[in-house]
Amino acid sequence: MRIETFGKDVEVTPALKEYVETKLQRLGKHFDQHCEVRVTLSLQKNEHHVDASANLPGQTLHAEAGGQTMYAAIDLLADKLDRLVIKYKEKHLPHASHALRDNG
């Protein structure tokens, strides 16, 4: 999984870049194939804003989040992307979700 982090009028410090990569690594556990995530950090008015696009096989997922701090916004974004990936998997891999329900 490749994660690219960019800043728009914000300096992407090594600590921020590492935090983004740590939080978004959990998306990789959902896929065997390679996927790419492009993250943009920015300030909008007085709010920290994070925007991400995840390129998955056959589709691109997009999420954005805002928060009082950049770290809070990254946390919200990671949760949103995780939910989107789970929905994507359920929609595109119905046999996997049926197998889980049948065994439970």
Describe the secondary-structure layout.
Layout: E1 2-8, H1 14-24, E2 36-44, E3 47-56, E4 59-67, H2 70-92, H3 94-103
Parallel strand pairs: 1-2
Antiparallel strand pairs: 2-3, 3-4
Verbal overview:
This protein is α+β, with helices and mostly antiparallel strands and 104 residues long. The protein is built from three helices and four strands. Helix 1 (14-24) links the parallel strand 1 (2-8) and strand 2 (36-44). The N and C termini lie far apart (30 Å).
Helix content: 40-55%
Distance between the termini: 30 Å
| β-strand number | 4
Rg (CA only) = 15 Å
Outline, from the CA principal axes? globular
Low-confidence stretches: 96-104
Number of helices: 3
Q: Estimate the strand proportion.
A: 25-35%
> Order of helices and strands, N to C?
EHEEEHH
Cross-sheet strand order for the largest sheet = 1-2-3-4
What does the main sheet amount to?
A: 4 strands, mixed
SS-derived structural category: alpha+beta
- Average pLDDT for all residues: 84
